[in-house]
Design goal:
about 375 residues; mainly alpha; three-stranded antiparallel β-sheet; 13 helices; about 50% helix
Length: about 375
């Protein structure tokens, strides 16, 4: 497909996803959307946003960027303000909530989002546990507190970096602890898939968790996104830069970010099982970020990202008609093992698809979000 036609399809897809935001806004009222039924588009919602609330706020900011409307900016700011209670919550997913919920803010409302982001960055830096060498997963969402998970890193790297030199040092330590666990120690040969979850025992150290298992495609996408964020921030990249480059290479090649299916299976061990379009969308944004890092892989990352976004827009985005809203990114898989929302629209999948398309169209600068 020619560049002009591809740009046109990307523009139409972005318009559809952001028009879907307006439909969702009317449906969910004061609650945060989480995932929607692929048959009719009806949302399952949460009262406080859980770990996904920042993606809903981020979608609203992307809509405001597209329309330029004052009412849309106010709506985005109001939803972002509702994320404030998460600032002090004991969870490393504050990176997902409070980075993506604030980084796209515009206009007069941007000052409030920046203040919230700075407060959250300081709180996360203060939560750093020197024994474990990271900001713990936390117990705000239930389960054991002293965990290291791949989804505890994205968003938290740039959020911590907002907290000055100390925050940047914590961001680097947090990321590198996860890389050393998930990918294996620096310099060691680890040809297998990343192991995305570990638990910490103060007496005996780190032990791998059985769930999620290696080959979790969204976990690999989260790690790649976190590495890309670090490489774009000199204050973080200055810590063990060679390790970051090696980690990017491992994830691009051995985890299939450049060579595997454009839309990967949710679990690599089940290639005929559900795919996960949200993992593909996260990967596309990570690849676009890596294309901004000078090096021999930059062009390949840009081309692959465009191909992934084009596949998502062309094969997995609902069109008008058929009894469900247009602009739904279908075939997202929340949790295949639990049978939870395995072929659904996921709010974070919508967000990363929209962010990637917005970046292609010059509506968002991935160096800043």
């Amino acid at each position: 497909m020619s560049g002009a036609r591809a740009d046109d399809r990307a523009g139409r897809a972005l318009a559809a996803v952001l028009d879907r935001v307006t439909v969702t806004e009317a449906e969910v009222g004061s609650r945060f959307p989480l995932y929607a039924d692929p048959r009719d588009g009806r949302w399952t919602t949460t009262g406080r946003g859980s770990w996904t609330g920042g993606f809903w706020a981020g979608l609203l900011w992307l809509r405001a960027r597209r329309t330029g409307g004052e009412a849309d900016r106010r709506a985005a700011a109001e939803w972002t303000a509702r994320l404030a209670p998460w600032t002090e919550a004991d969870t490393a997913t504050r990176g997902l909530i409070l980075w993506y919920g604030t980084a796209l803010a515009l206009g007069d409302e941007a000052a409030g989002a920046e203040a919230l982001r700075a407060r959250a960055g300081r709180a996360c830096a203060e939560a750093y546990d020197p024994r474990a060498g990271l900001v713990p997963w936390g117990d705000a969402l239930g389960g054991p507190r002293l965990l290291a998970r791949a989804d505890a890193v994205p968003g938290l790297v740039p959020l911590l970096a907002c907290a000055g030199p100390e925050g940047a040092a914590v961001a680097a330590a947090h990321l590198h602890r996860h890389l050393d666990l998930c990918l294996g120690p620096e310099g060691a040969a680890h040809p297998g898939r990343p192991r995305p979850a570990w638990r910490f025992d103060p007496e005996t150290g780190w032990h791998p968790c059985e769930d999620p298992a290696p080959g979790w495609s969204r976990g690999e996408a989260w790690l790649l996104l976190a590495v890309a964020d670090a490489l774009l921030r000199p204050e973080v990249a200055g810590h063990r830069p060679r390790r970051l480059a090696d980690a990017a290479g491992h994830l691009l090649e051995r985890a299939g970010a450049l060579t595997g299916p454009l839309v990967p299976p949710h679990e690599a061990s089940r290639p005929r099982g559900p795919v996960d379009t949200s993992a593909a969308a996260i990967t596309a944004v990570a690849l676009l970020k890596l294309s901004l890092v000078p090096g021999p892989r930059a062009a390949a990352c840009a081309d692959r990202a465009a191909a992934v976004l084009d596949r998502l827009a062309g094969a997995h985005l609902t069109a008008p008609g058929g009894g469900r809203p247009a602009g739904m990114l279908l075939d997202g898989c929340y949790d295949a093992a639990k049978g939870l929302a395995v072929r659904h629209e996921l709010v974070w999948g919508d967000f990363f698809l929209a962010l990637g398309l917005a970046a292609l169209g010059g509506l968002a600068d991935l160096r800043r979000v």
